[in-house]
Amino acid sequence: MTTSTTSKPIREAGLFLALTLGLSYLVFWGPLAVFQVPAISFVGSKMGPAWAIALYVMGGFVPSGAAVALIALKEGRRGLGELWRRMIQFHIGWRMYVAAIAIVVFGAACQIGLNNLLGGTFDVKLFLTQLPSFLPLLILGPLSEELGWRGYAQDRLQARWSPQVASIILGIVWAFWHLPLFFIPGTSQHELGVPFIGFFFSIVSMSLLFGWLHNHTGGSVWTAIFFHWIYTYAGQVVATGVRRNTLFNWLEYAPYVLMAMLVFIVWSRETRSARFAASRM
User: How many alpha carbons fall within 13 Å on the CB side of residue 253?
Assistant: First the structure.
């Protein structure tokens, strides 16, 4: 693509990413982190005032909210209708559903195995007993974020960079968007002692996996919502059942990093092959 055809989507992606980070850092999560105000507690007894809880929850919706606002301003009903179509694009092929589920199952199984190797135990019945939380988790994370990350930014970044590079760039921003959570009492990042550097590599790795699924399902936003949904549920169940220590906190995301490295290699070869075939036509 020429510079003229890529500059607009890159500007749009840059505006979205700046707006998302700016609102999260300066308006919603940042103040809570700076003044160490507890919000909602998922792993302990810390619970903040109602206004702090409101800021925390609204901050989680910034990516999707910013994307919807920008689409409404720039593209109107047509753009919003296209976003909705991609959100309900359920027919992505059974293989992609299997791939998304397999990634999460493998990652969770490896985390449980690591926990057991380090002397912990895990009750697999937790996956059943926590099922009532499965539906609410659709909102916190999948719907509150994915309209922005994959529904808006991914394709616009890909207008200039390869899907792999675009996924990495998006993953870096996605990771730093979470940074204030490490300083807000009550969040899992704060209470469980998760090192940000390990979390950073895990989010960049997940972004590559998200990007691979996104590009292999025709840009379906539903794919990202579904993958985020089951990943969040599995992560919640594992987090409540393992025995944590420093080594586990550093290694828990290793399975997803390894899967992302494999996907990056295979996907890059696939992309190069497609470009080579296109150049010969």
Answer: 20
Cβ atoms of residues 198 and 249 within 8 Å:
yes
> Residue 36: exposed, middle, or buried by beta-carbon count in 10 A (0-12, 13-18, 19+)?
exposed
pLDDT tens sequence across 69-124: 999 999 999 999 999 999 999 999 999 999 999 999 999 999 999 999 999 999 99
